[in-house]
Amino acid sequence: MKRSLQDRQECPITFFPGLRGKCFVLDREGKNAKKENRDTYTAFRFTLKAPFGTRILFYLPVWWTFEFIWLLTHKWDVVHAVDFDTIPPAVIIAKLKRKPVIYEIADYYPYLIRLPSIITRISVFIDHIFMLLSDVIIAASELKIGGLKAIPDSKIVVLYGSPPDFLTEIPRSVNKNTPFSIFYSGALHKDRQLNLDKLILAVRDIKSVNLIIAVTALRSMK
């Protein structure tokens, strides 16, 4: 289960050689095939031109309804849900069918999207309920585990989505007077808390540090 369409990371089954899976995704563009066979999985796409940011909350019931129906009418052995916006129907159907559910947390939305504090607290509480009901929780890094309080460690698995850092030490030939460069590359969204302002404040008075930012602004940015 995945709510956005990224062909290179569309289906988690691609990381498990020898297995074939089904991937139900939300297609915001509406320009892709409703059903497409890939090497290791079959992609099923539900078209819904939903916005980004907090306005997606009004579209979630529609997405969850179709996800619920799809899971109910298709055969599968394990459901792998990615992020909070796919987990509620996955857990409910998994319990009804007595199947295991894997909850992958790539983005921890309660602390990523700017919401009123009361809504944030409620969403954290609900999210933790689904975590406890899941059989396995996959976190993108150890830093994500900070938001998984009260969840048994035996349920949590850390899987990195980035290549390992092979540079164990800085070569001695590097000139100490050479400025230290920090590079950030990503996407900007007005509802996402990237904390770039804090990074800028942290380095602005340090003469030996260069901050390089390369970003793409989503269409919702003005």
Kindly estimate the percentage of residues that lie in beta strands according to DSSP. 15-25%
Main sheet specs: 4 strands, parallel
The gyration radius over C-alpha positions equals 20 Å
Low-confidence stretches: 3-9
- Number of H- or I-type helical stretches: 5
CATH superfamily of the largest domain: Glycogen Phosphorylase B
Share of residues in helices: 10-25%
This entry's quaternary arrangement is single chain
| Cα end-to-end separation | 31 Å
Q: What is the CATH first-level class name of the largest domain?
A: Alpha Beta
How many β strands by DSSP?
9
Number of domains: 2
Average pLDDT for all residues: 78
CATH topology of the largest domain: Rossmann fold
Strand order of the largest sheet: 4-5-6-7
CATH architecture of the largest domain: 3-Layer(aba) Sandwich
Q: What structural class do the secondary elements suggest?
A: alpha/beta
Shape: globular
Order of helices and strands: EEEHEHEHHEEEHE
Structural account:
The protein has 222 residues and is of the alpha/beta class. It folds into two domains: 152 residues, Glycogen Phosphorylase B (Rossmann fold), CATH 3.40.50.2000; 56 residues, no CATH class. A four-stranded parallel sheet has the order 4-5-6-7. A three-stranded mixed sheet has the order 1-3-2, with helices on one face. Strands 8-9 form a two-stranded parallel ribbon. Helix 2 links the parallel strand 4 and strand 5. Helix 1 runs parallel beside helix 2. It starts with 20 loop residues before the first strand and ends in a 5-residue tail after the last strand. The N terminus is likely disordered.
